[in-house]
């Protein structure tokens, strides 16, 4: 074997090794650290727009605890999403989508998950609405700059509610308050609208696509300031 041919084979071998390592690293990152999802509905506008791509930190809540205001991706607790029939996919397209999902560049299961904002943690008392149309957590009224309301409406929820969040669960709501089927409107499901923390896949921290929508996703700590102290006072 001449030197040039041997060099070409070594180059191809190294290229294959780099490719395999890159795929394995991508798989490990997707499995344990971060992964991508797309936004399936309008319920989080204008924070998130339908078909936006988001990156989710999967260390939350396993390693890092959840906080009020976090935007989270979670598996359907049961009965939140309508049953749907998977469309037929050509074998080649299915194989490509499987590979992209394997390395975390595609999220074919996005339609089986929901994206909402955490409002109540276990033990929180969430109530709506006061005379100013605000929601409160543990008796502390919330000023929610992320909420989208129809023109002329000032109440942050069309319907009033008064709930205490059970242990191990969350109360979640969409930012597009009059167009979100969230904890308020799933009282007839097995878990009464509460989301088990174990169903949370992770916390969304950035909009990655399209580039024009790129943004970090915060959890508005100033909105929930004083809520923990109020909980400690037994409200």
Main beta-sheet annotation: 8 strands, antiparallel
Q: Helix amount, in percent?
A: 10-25%
The string of secondary-structure elements, in order, is HEEEHEEEEEEEEEH
Strand content: 15-25%
Through-space gap between termini: 81 Å
Low-confidence stretches: none
CA-atom Rg in angstroms: 22 Å
Per the principal axes of the C-alpha atoms, what is the gross shape?
elongated
Q: Please count the beta strands (DSSP E, at least 2 residues each).
A: 12
Q: Helix segment count?
A: 3
Class per helix and strand makeup: alpha+beta
Query: Mean pLDDT, rounded to whole units?
Result: 85
Subcellular location: Cell membrane; Membrane
Catalytic activity: Cleavage of hydrophobic, N-terminal signal or leader sequences from secreted and periplasmic proteins
EC number: 3.4.21.89
Transmembrane segments: 12-33
Report on this structure.
Strands 1, 2, 3, 4, 9, 10, 11 and 12 form an 8-stranded antiparallel beta sheet that branches. A 4-stranded antiparallel beta sheet has the order 7-6-5-8. It has helices at 3-32, 91-102, 227-232, and strands at residues 34-38, 53-57, 71-75, 113-120, 125-128, 135-137, 140-141, 161-164, 169-173, 195-196, 200-209, 215-216. It is elongated. The protein is 20% helix and 23% strand. The chain contains 3 helices and 12 strands; from the N terminus they run H-E-E-E-H-E-E-E-E-E-E-E-E-E-H. A hairpin with a 5-residue loop joins strand 11 and strand 12. The chain is an alpha+beta fold. Belongs to the peptidase S26 family.
